[in-house]
Write a structure and sequence with these properties.
The protein has 872 residues and is α/β, with parallel strands linked by helices. It has six domains: 6-108, DNA repair protein MutS, domain I (MutS, DNA mismatch repair protein, domain I), CATH 3.40.1170.10; 126-251, Nucleotidyltransferase, domain 5 (2-Layer Sandwich), CATH 3.30.420; 304-390 and 529-555, Orthogonal Bundle (MutS, DNA mismatch repair protein, Chain A, domain 3), CATH 1.10.1420; 421-507, MutS, DNA mismatch repair protein, Chain A, domain 3; 562-760, 3-Layer(aba) Sandwich (Rossmann fold), CATH 3.40.50.300; 837-872. It has 30 helices and 27 strands. The strands form five sheets. The protein has a seven-stranded mixed β-sheet, with helices on both faces. It has a six-stranded mixed β-sheet with strand order 3-4-2-1-5-6, sandwiched between helices. A six-stranded mixed β-sheet has the order 11-10-7-8-9-12, with helices on both faces. A hairpin with a 3-residue loop joins strand 16 (481-485) and strand 17 (489-493). Helix 10 packs across helix 19. The longest helix is centred in the middle third of the chain and has 33 residues, at 495-527. 38% of the residues are buried. The structure holds adenosine-5'-triphosphate. The site of adenosine-5'-triphosphate has 15 residues, from helix 21. Keywords: ATP-binding, DNA damage, DNA repair, DNA-binding, Nucleotide-binding.
Length: 872
């Protein structure tokens, strides 16, 4: 059997270590991929697949991407959840010349990606590690490699808690041990996370300092697992990693993953984009760092009253100091991403332009400091005190770097004149070389009196003085060293010319080398300031988010909420922050919400489309904004501090786990019921809608009773089941409210106004009319409705029951049942069993297959309408 060529063997050896990654194998100006990698990459990247002899029995499939445009391809692959191992070639110093050594210099993974087009500057890229301690707890640690932010906590070892934490962070990758349950690994992968294995968890010596303050062994273990992985994949300096902060999930308002989605906190449900979310509305930040922090604050509102009030006071101060705030916004605009710049300094991949950005950002700091201090508020002054302009770096960068350096640090033009004497000399030589040669030529002509003497240059001998044979006798003895003899002339050099020549010829090369070295020195000096830069970045981002809260609060007329110790919730003229912004043609109708320990549950009725969900969401968003420390969209707000928010809103299939809408509904309800406390907020939008009417109604009532008797959480429960409204007579803390609508000229007009008491009617058919269902159908629906309202037995149920019971097929149906169903569908004549028309037979088949009890009323009407048509 033929063996592969040495290079392919080398490839296979390396590939064996990186089986779960695309191996980008450097060959000259290309990164090549072979075998399965090539087949897959050619499809993913739409690049040409070729094949070559490589010593094996078959040709080797192969495809490649050019080195210079590789970043884009890597970006694409990693964005799709793949890993890419970059394998570079170097000449092996220990081996004979020409022997190439190849090694993987970095493994780029979804959670460690730090640049590229697909990485949003206003979003963190978190990677988390999970360690199962086998005692019912998980160690959970996460890092954003680009900013060096590190945090760790302990979680209950339930998949939902773990996934919730990963989802809240938007983590792209989870690092687990090989013993981590395979089914959970699969679940995480199906939910779009890359899962990587790392079994080492002992502490790395190089990170002792980072872990120094961690008393809890579990934190040290989970953080060490993550660090091992980062170290193994990145293979470079990770000096920018910040000391680990410990947090507990209970320090924050717990918003589970479903609620985060249902409330559209950071992305919308349908478009899955930022536009239309609370984050979109709020994002008035001026810096990338501020943008990232805003998202974190939205994901994790606070529950500590003092911390919330501290933010509120700062927001209030900023609102009051309009002019200072405008200055601050302008100043922040000129601050680049200090956090990510600091990260790149650590990695050693900053270029001179990055350092110029760093300098100009730092130059803004004294002004920001002054602006914030001038607001005169204590907390603002404290932040101002923390702002450290790092003057030494600004001075160094100002002295060392030119204003408009190129991106490449190997091209020169980085370092300013006057920064380094040696560099100045070479530059001088390079710039003045030609002038100097011309003047030497003049001097030599004068000295020798030879007018034809000239100084020339050739690639072999360098600079020379050329004298014609006839004039040779005029040259001073011993001064000129002969270099070359031509037919009619001789060429000479002098020690002076030689010295200048070295200076001139090597100047360009020397300049580039020297500039590079000096730049690296500057970069190394900046490296020492990373912790100070990170501290500064934190303070600047906080200021940015606070000014953003102030800007939105002022522009949109928000008020400062007050926190009630007595579990009261009073919102006057509350608005849904996003809907109010989006509505253009129509004014938003503000609504009040009153709740207290005697009024814990509100049962909300009202027509479809009247604004029940919007009202419920606006209450939750008001609470979330308040606990973020922001003002809220209302005329007045007194709020309890909630510990958790649970929601069940709208239809949300969990396609991944293959659960039905109704199952998801029940799972979300269970999650709320199992975890809510008296300090929680629950929003249940039409729970029970996903099943048959009686089941749904029974479940809805049981859920309301359960919350009322056992949990006492503040609960907003919207329903179409009017039958539930009398519950308020029995349940003391349940009140009915409704969203009002009126009928004008037979059409429904929504007032969007919440009123006490239950709704008088449902207007479902009016909404169907608005949706332009056929007139005939609407007319029929009204007929059915009025017959139902008169207490008539639904004609659907008896027939359905008979069929369900499988007591009869069409031939066996007794006459009266058949008569009933045909008359229901508008067949007037009494048919003979034996004389059924083909249409009627078809109709009977259709009826048998109907699952009317599983349908919503509208679906039922639609089906009936279709069947009616069959008869025509
Ligand atoms: N307070 C309001 N002021 C103005 N428009 C509103 C208000 N509340 C809701 N709307 C408008 O009404 C539309 C429907 O609201 P929403 O989805 O909350 O109704 P709903 O009662 O929950 O409907 P359904 O029962 O069909 O789910 C919203 O998209 C919004 O445009």
């Amino acid at each position: 059997m033929a063996t592969y060529t040495p290079m392919i063997q080398q490839y296979l050896r390396i590939k064996a270590e990186y089986q779960d990654a695309f191996l980008f194998f450097r060959l000259g100006d290309f990164y090549e991929m072979f075998f399965d990698d090539a087949l897959k990459a050619s499809q993913e990247l739409e690049i040409t697949l070729t094949s070559r002899e490589g010593g094996g029995e078959d040709k080797i499939p192969m495809c490649g991407v050019p080195y210079h445009s590789a970043a884009n391809y890597i970006d694409t692959l990693v964005e799709r959840g793949y890993k890419v191992a970059i394998c570079e070639q170097t000449e092996d110093p220990k081996q004979a010349k020409g022997v190439v050594r190849r090694e993987v210099v970095q493994l780029i993974t979804p959670g460690t990606k730090m640049d590229g087009k697909t990485l949003d500057e206003k979003e963190n890229n978190f990677i988390a590690s999970v360690t199962d301690f086998g005692d019912g707890s998980f160690g959970f640690a996460y890092t954003d490699l680009s900013t060096g932010e590190n945090k760790a906590t302990i979680l209950n070892s339930s998949f939902s808690d773990l996934y919730n934490e990963l989802a809240i962070l938007g983590a792209k990758e989870a690092v687990v041990s090989s013993g981590f349950p395979a089914s959970w690994q699969k679940d995480l992968k199906e939910r779009g996370l890359a899962v990587s294995l790392e079994d080492s968890e002992e502490e790395l010596i190089s990170f002792t300092e980072l872990l120094a303050d961690l008393n809890e062994k579990k934190h040290r273990i989970s953080m060490s697992r993550l660090l091992h992985y980062l170290f193994r994949t990145q293979k470079r300096n990770l000096d920018h990693l910040q000391p680990v902060t410990i947090y507990e999930t209970k320090q924050f308002l717990k918003i589970d993953f479903y609620s985060k989605r249902n409330l559209e906190l950071t992305e919308t449900i349908r478009a899955k984009g930022k536009k239309g979310s609370l984050l979109w509305l709020m994002d008035e930040t001026k810096t990338a760092m501020g943008g990232r922090l805003l998202k974190q604050w939205i994901d994790r509102p606070l529950i500590d009253k003092n911390q919330i009030e501290r933010r509120q006071e700062l927001v209030e101060t900023m609102i009051q100091h309009f002019f200072e705030r405008q200055d601050l916004r302008e100043q922040l605009k000129n601050v680049y991403d200090l956090e990510r710049l600091a990260g790149r300094v650590a990695f050693g991949n900053v270029n001179a332009r990055d350092l110029i950005q760093l300098k100009s950002s730092l130059q803004q700091v004294p002004a920001i400091k002054q602006t914030v201090a001038s607001m005169g508020q204590e907390q603002a002054r404290k932040i101002s005190d923390i702002l450290d302009p790092c003057g030494e770096i600004t001075d160094l960068l100002e002295q060392a770097l030119q204003d408009n350096p190129p991106i490449s640090i190997k091209e020169g033009n980085l370092i300013r004149d006057g920064y380094n004497e040696e560099l100045d000399r070479y530059r001088d030589a390079s710039r003045n070389g030609k002038t100097w040669i011309a003047s030497l030529e003049r001097q030599e002509r004068e000295r020798t009196g030879i007018k034809s003497l000239k100084i020339g240059y050739n690639r072999i001998f360098g600079y020379y003085i050329e004298v014609s044979r006839a004039n040779l006798h005029l040259l001073e003895e011993g001064r000129y060293e002969r270099k070359q003899t031509l037919t009619n002339a001789e060429r000479f050099v002098t020690p002076e010319l030689k010295e200048k020549e070295t200076l001139i010829l090597q100047a360009e090369e020397k300049i580039a080398d020297l500039e590079y070295d000096l730049f690296i020195q500057v970069r190394e000096t900046v490296k020492e300031y990373i912790p100070r830069l990170q501290k500064l970045a934190k303070a600047v981002s906080e200021l940015d988010v606070l000014q953003c809260f102030a800007a939105v609060s002022e522009e949109r007329h928000y008020v400062k909420p007050v926190f009630s110790e007595e579990r009261k919730l009073i919102i006057k003229d509350g608005r849904h922050p996003v809907v109010e912004k989006v509505l253009r043609t129509q004014e938003y109708v503000p609504n009040d919400c009153y709740m207290n320990p005697e009024r814990e549950l509100l049962l909300i009725t009202g027509p479809n489309m009247s604004g029940k969900s919007t009202f419920m969401r606006q209450v939750a968003l008001t609470a979330i904004l308040a606990q973020m420390g922001c003002f809220v969209p209302a005329a007045e707000a007194v709020l309890p501090i909630f510990d958790k928010v649970f929601t069940r809103i709208g239809a949300a299939d969990d396609l991944i786990s293959g659960q039905s809408t109704f199952m998801v509904e029940m799972l979300e309800a269970r999650n709320a019921i199992a975890n809510a406390t008296a300090n929680s907020l629950i929003l249940f939008d039409e729970i029970g809608r996903g099943t048959s009417t009686y089941d749904g109604m029974a479940l809805a009532q049981a859920i309301i009773e359960y919350i009322h008797d056992n949990i006492r959480a503040k609960t907003l429960f919207s329903t179409h089941y009017h039958e539930l409204t009398p519950l308020s007579d029995q349940l003391t803390s349940l009140e009915n409210v409704h969203v009002s609508a009126v009928e004008q000229n037979g059409k429904v007009v929504f007032l969007h106004k919440i009123k006490e008491g239950s709704a008088d009617k449902s207007y479902g058919i009016h909404v169907a009319q608005l949706a332009e269902l056929p007139d005939e159908l609407i007319k029929r629906a009204n007929e059915i409705l009025s017959s139902l309202e008169k207490g008539a037995d639904t004609p659907i149920i008896p027939i359905k029951k008979e069929i369900d019971n499988k007591q009869a097929d069409a031939a066996n149906l007794n006459e009266s049942a058949l008569e009933a169903q045909l008359s229901f569908f508008g067949v007037q004549e009494k048919p003979q069993k034996t004389e059924l028309t083909s249409k009627e037979k078809k109709l009977i088949e259709q009826i048998k297959s109907l699952e009317i009890l599983e349908m919503t009323p509208l679906e039922a009407i639609n089906s009936l309408y279709k069947l009616q048509k069959l008869l025509k």
